[in-house]
């Protein structure tokens, strides 16, 4: 995308934010993928609206994009949900069972 298009999207975001069109701002952030609003993301997390947290995050990164995305999803949504919805689960499951069976004695 051209830099002119990108600048136009940022100007529209700025205008919508100044005019208090909060829902529209966040929808455009998601759909354009140009700007991740950390403040909005924190508000979603603090409110406990996990479905909306997943939707907002999914607009910018997917679980399989890279190891950092995988770590974010894993830390945010927990091991159970991560493995349940991921094709990585069956590959890692034997490792987790082996890891749980090891005990440390002092």
Structural description of this entry:
By secondary structure, the chain is mainly α. It folds into 2 domains: 1-60, no CATH class; 62-106, no CATH class. Helix content is 74%, strand content 0%. It is built from 6 helices and no strands. It has helices at 3-18, 22-32, 38-47, 50-58, 67-85, 89-101. α1 packs antiparallel against α2 and α3 (38-47) packs antiparallel against α4. The model is unreliable at 89-106 (pLDDT under 50). Keywords: Repeat, WD repeat. This is CTLH domain-containing protein. Residues 34-76 form the CTLH domain. It comes from Artemisia annua.
Show the helix and strand layout.
Blueprint (H helix, E strand, L loop, with lengths): L2 H16 L3 H11 L5 H10 L2 H9 L8 H19 L3 H13 L5
Helix pairs in contact: 1-2, 3-4
* End-to-end separation: 60 Å
Roughly what percent helix?
A: over 70%
Task: Name the shape in a single word.
Answer: flat
Q: Mind summarizing the main beta sheet? A: none
How much is the average pLDDT?
Answer: 76
Number of strands: 0
| Helix-strand pattern | HHHHHH
Strand content: under 5%
Structural class: mainly alpha
Count of separate structural domains:
2
Overall radius of gyration: 19 Å
Tally of separate helices: 6
Uncertain runs are 89-106
InterPro entries: CTLH_C, Topless_fam, TPL_SMU1_LisH-like, TPR1-like_2nd
Pfam families: LisH_TPL, TPR1-like_2nd
GO biological process, one term: regulation of DNA-templated transcription
Protein name: CTLH domain-containing protein
């Amino acid at each position: 995308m051209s830099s002119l298009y990108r600048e136009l999207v940022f100007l529209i975001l700025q205008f919508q934010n100044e005019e208090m069109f909060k829902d529209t701002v966040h929808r455009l952030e998601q759909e354009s993928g140009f700007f991740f609003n950390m403040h909005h993301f924190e508000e979603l997390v603090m409110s406990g609206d996990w479905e909306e947290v997943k939707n907002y995050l999914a607009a910018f990164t997917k679980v399989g994009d890279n190891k950092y995305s995988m770590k974010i999803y894993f830390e945010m949504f927990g091991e159970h949900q991560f493995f349940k919805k991921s094709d990585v689960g069956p590959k890692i499951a034997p490792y987790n069972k082996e890891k749980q069976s090891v005990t440390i004695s002092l």
